Amino acid sequence: MTSDAVVAISQIVGTVLIGITLVYLAVQVRQNTTALKSSAFLAISGSMVSTMEVWATHPDVAPLLLRAEGGLDGLSPDDRVRFGFLMMMAFRRAESIIVQRHLGLIGPSLTEGFERSALSVLHSKGARQWWGASKVAFSGLFSTWIDEKLASNLPQPIHAGLGLGNPKEKI
Fold first, then answer.
1. Phi, psi of 121 (to 5 degrees)
2. What is the pLDDT of residues 43-86, one digit of tens each?
3. I want to staple 79 with a disulfide (CB 3.0 to 4.6 A). Which of 20, 57, 75, 119 is the partner?
4. CA–CA separation, 62 vs 119, rounded Å?
5. In the chain, where does DSSP find H-type helix?
6. Which residues, other chains included, contact 121 with Cβ-Cβ below 8 Å and sequence gap of 6+?
7. Whole-structure pTM over 0.85, yes or no?
8. Residues 94, 98, 99: CA angle, nearest 5 degrees
9. Which of residues 150 and 56 earns the better pLDDT score?
10. How confident is the model at residue 163 (pLDDT cuts 50, 70, 90)?
11. How far apart are CA 14 and CA 21, in angstroms?
12. From CA 16, how far away is CA 40, in angstroms rounded?
């Protein structure tokens, strides 16, 4: 075998190995992307669940949310502070959903329920008043998204005490 033949065979083997390596890397990138998207969904879901857990397990929160449905003017200064921080916590978590969707880490089909839930809160007069005063604390991307949704139609209220009304009144 001549040295030219050895070089030619080496080049062919090298080309095949590079092709195999590229296919392997493509598979690994795809699997990593799927894992990242799954992690993003789990993080979003976990943060939203922890928000609902706070609202469901602290006995002073539900009455506060019900009082705030009529607007912030009827709240004591302490209640306004507490309500503001509850809204900040909830909307900061909603902002993370919109940012992750914007970055392509999760698709709209997986976030639409979370988004609907967050937007439905704005049926509460107190939540709308809070948003008007507090939106400057959020990213422009999120503020614009919320304001566009407010200008169009909000989803139907989902949560009692946050635009759906007092559950006792429905009975």
1. -60, -30
2. 767 777 777 787 778 888 888 888 998 899 989 999 999 999 99
3. 75
4. 18
5. 3-57, 61-68, 77-102, 108-120, 125-134, 140-151, 167-170
6. 87, 90, 127, 159, 162, 163
7. no
8. 115
9. 150
10. low
11. 10
12. 36
CA atoms within 13 A on the CB side of 39: 6
Assigned token pair, 110: 């997986």
In the chain, DSSP finds a helix count (H) and a strand count (E) of 7, 0
Locate 156 and state its tokens.
């139907």
pLDDT for res 169? 44
Sign of CA dihedral 125, 130, 136, 138: negative
CA atoms within 13 A on the CB side of 144: 5
Assigned token pair, 92: 């900061």
Residue type, position 56, single letter: A
By the 8 A CB rule, do 164 and 157 touch?
yes
Give the chain's end-to-end CA distance (angstroms, integer): 93
> Could you tell me the two tokens for 133?
């005063």
Residue range 125-141, pLDDT digits in tens:
899 999 999 999 999 99
- List, for residues 83-135, the tens digit of each pLDDT value: 999 999 989 988 988 998 898 888 888 888 888 888 888 888 899 999 999 99
Q: What residue type is 141 in one-letter code? A: L
Dihedral-angle region of residue 75 (phi above 0 means left; psi in -120 to 50 means alpha; beta otherwise): beta
